User: What shape does this take?
Amino acid sequence: MSYRVCFVCTGNICRSPMAEAVFRARVAEAGLADLVEVDSAGTGGWHVGEGADPRTVSVLEENGYTVAHTARMFERSWFSRLDLVIALDAGHVTALRRLAPTGEDAQKVRPLRAYAPAGGDLDVPDPYYGGRDGFEECLHMVEEASVGLLAAVRAGLEGRVA
Assistant: This one.
């Protein structure tokens, strides 16, 4: 049985596809690709059907990641099949927990930066309206938190693998 993680931001073209690409790479490097499913979505439907923002793609590719992405909107029914719903900022945490059909589902929603070392702000700033440096900062924040998230997923896999 796969462990399923979905990253969620606002439009699913900047932060969440970046987090998806980075975490998918970490999962593969850890030899867990057959056990962990990684995807992403947005809280809104503004960009459904579009590819990732070209700045996201550029920053990812320049740092050795691959991205094949089509934006979609998070659906309430997905909670039942997901183990973790990783929000990229506090607004997403609130929106997703309100959307959750049960208290147990609401507990699946976690801010990505909660997995980063040394605490600090839990939000990954939205780079959409800024310059390239915002996308590079986003990548750094995602990479930093992915280490702790991978450890949490490994712990979640315990008992599932025969």
